[in-house]
Amino acid sequence: MTPKHFWQLVFTTTQLNLKSEASKSYLMYAWWFLEPLLFVAVFYVVFGIFMAQNKPGFVVFLLCGQVPFLWFARTISNGCSSIAHGIGLMSQIRIPKLYFPLVTIFQDTVKSLCVFALLLVFVAIYDSNITAAWFALPVIMLVQFTFVLSLTLLCAMLVPFIPDIKYLVATSIQLAMFGSGIFYDFRTVIREEHVSLYLANPLANLINQYRSVLIEGVLPDWQALATIMVISSLVVVLLIIVLKRLDSVYPRVLLE
Amino acid sequence: MTTKLLSIENVTFHYFQRHGLRVKKRTVLNNLQLDVYQGEVLGVIGRNGCGKSTLLKLLAGIYQPDKGRIVANNVRVSLQTLNAGFDNALSGRDNALISAMLLGHCKAHALSQLEEINDMAELRDQFDEPVKTYSAGMRARLGFSIAIKMQTDVLLIDEVLGVGDAAFRSKAEQIIDEKIRSGLTVILVSHAVHQIRRLCTRAILIENGKIIDQGGVDGVLSNYEKTIKNTIG
């Protein structure tokens, strides 16, 4: 399979899977927006109203954390079983196993991009505060994509060997939600001496960068972004090399 | 029957069955030796679990042998089971596109073949309806037509032609006949003795992971029937 053919196949499958998924519900593509909105609504009711954090701008603050988090969470939870679920296909044809995680990652990324578009429209209307710093957003998103890609690949590659990891993934996503400052501002909650440790969590760091740009209108911390990008890229390259070597091992591991 | 397309050289293959943390090893194919020649239709017979399907998976490159090697001289091999994984929510057309691309064709070529696939599968307007609305026979026709249209050099068929109505079955056999005459090499795994007899030019009989008989179809088939009778009697 040539690289050109491989990418054609990945993109066509992604496109058709999205179409298939949408056709399975009454509201179809509307769910791409409704699902994240429901999440935000629940968070808003709990943290904004019940816990009385109803300061001005809390909704935007919440959205800037929730939207990137949902991209992260959905991609990993859908992607971690992608290779394992590909067993039907891989027992019939010879196919690079990278195909399976890539398709789920792209599917969730397309959906998340729609939600990001909605977020930008919302921030623009609510805050009427579009600054030049917004040009940095695609960079932050690219870094997040690479970070999510590295974690999803790792989980997808491990699950066929150790299916039990699926349970750990679900718990870890919960932990990531609490540890990444989605519904709190780390500057008011985390003690001074723990801040660098908190920001060493790439997801918390990325969410902080989104907020810098969208709420404060300042440029992100380029050095932090570069660090996450370089480490994630290295991990991705390493994992792809390992995946190529294990290519013919997966059908056997999954069928036996 | 001169050019050698594929050869299986001393191939051994094990399965590892896992029960919790314990692993049990089972030999499926044991030091197998086989050559496949251009234009032949090779029938593979043997009882359930004798290693027939594993053999096809090795030939298709899905598995790598534990010992020995498989030499394919620049040929495209594809395995076709008729219950290929269609997405029920998508139309026959979308499924045909993805299947054709999965079988190794670029998007442009796959798109150009869709109408011919529809003609052969006789789905007509239903081609654009979701596959979940299809009958079992219609799905089988679609799968068969994709496999035949998106031709490869060696077609591996696992237990086919059992589905679909009588008219389509005879059409399918006729199409396979034509393909064989045009030089396509086929390896057919089947329990249907009459099908092997009608379509194949050579046959092998596998028992306990070894080829115990090979050669002319009639000889091998009567041997197969004998082994079955011995087990029953």
TrEMBL record, chain B:
Location of the ABC transporter domain: 6-233
Keywords from the UniProt entry: ATP-binding, Nucleotide-binding, Transport
GO molecular function, one term: ATP binding
Family in the record: Belongs to the ABC transporter superfamily.
UniProt cross-references to PANTHER family, sorted A to Z: TEICHOIC ACIDS EXPORT ATP-BINDING PROTEIN TAGH
Record protein name field: ABC transporter ATP-binding protein
Native source species: Fluctibacter halophilus
